[in-house]
Amino acid sequence: SNDSLLAASFSNSPTVLGAAGFSYRTSITFNGLKTSEILLKGTDIFPWLSAYPYVLASLPEFQTAAKGQALLSNNPEKGVIRRVALLTAINGTVTPGLSLEMMRVAYSVDNIIANVGHHGVEGVNIGDKFIPIQGNGEAWVHYDKPSRERYISALSIFKGEVPASRVSGKMVLVGLTGLG
Predict the structure, then answer these.
(1) In terms of CB atoms within 10 Å, which end of the chain has fewer, N or C?
(2) CB contact set of 90 (below 8 Å; sequence gap of 6+)
(3) DSSP state of 144
(4) Cα(112)–Cα(136) distance, integer angstroms
(5) Can you give the pLDDT of all 180 residues of the chain as single tens digits?
(6) CA 87 to CA 97: how far, in whole Å?
(7) Closest CA relative to residue 114, chosen from 54, 48, 171
(8) In 3-state terms, the chain is what percent helix, strand and coil (to 5)?
(9) What pLDDT is recorded for position 179?
(10) Phi, psi at 145, each rounded to 5°
(11) Which residues pair with 68 in a beta bridge?
């Protein structure tokens, strides 16, 4: 099936899947994600993090094949996303945000280490890299100017119109767009 082919491609590449936190159970939500364990150093992290009891994730076949999974959910301020969650709790398990999980997979590190102090999360270690973050597990987003050069259509790749050097060795986000 096409799902099996896609899962096979995930298992042969450093793929990270996104998921959405849900505050209620549906027929398609799960109690957690299959993700690497986040090791904790310091005090209790859970009072500081946004939490969700359920998650809307990819098909189980995709989850098994991917190298990582991460939460994409954020809390917009008046409709604008100014901060992103780098650490969140899903059903009592600390879960990474997309940026952190992509870095963990890119650096081939088994675990992220969250450092927690008396004022919340101080930062995380991914291998020998320390990343300071806000006490609530979030980071402010630095938006750059929009650039159409950052976007590549899947059709252009399939047609061979994009040189491999354009994506080789880079972190690539794959998303959908549609009109109508």
Answers:
(1) C
(2) 21, 31, 32, 33, 51, 52, 53, 54, 55, 71
(3) P
(4) 16
(5) 899 999 999 999 999 999 999 888 888 888 878 788 899 999 999 999 999 999 998 888 999 999 999 998 887 778 888 889 999 999 889 999 999 999 999 999 999 999 999 999 999 999 999 999 999 999 998 888 888 888 898 889 889 999 989 888 888 888 776 655
(6) 6
(7) 48
(8) 20, 30, 45
(9) 57
(10) -65, 140
(11) 16
Query: What's the rounded Cα separation, in Å, for the pair 145 and 1?
Result: 40
pTM over 0.85: yes
Which DSSP string do the residues of 17-38 spell out, in sequence order? Answer: EEEEEESS--TT-BS----PPE
Residue 22 identity: F
Write down the residue that tokens 């020998």 correspond to: 128
Tokens of residue 132, six digits: 């300071």
71: its two tokens:
């939460």
CB 93 within 8 A of CB 32: yes
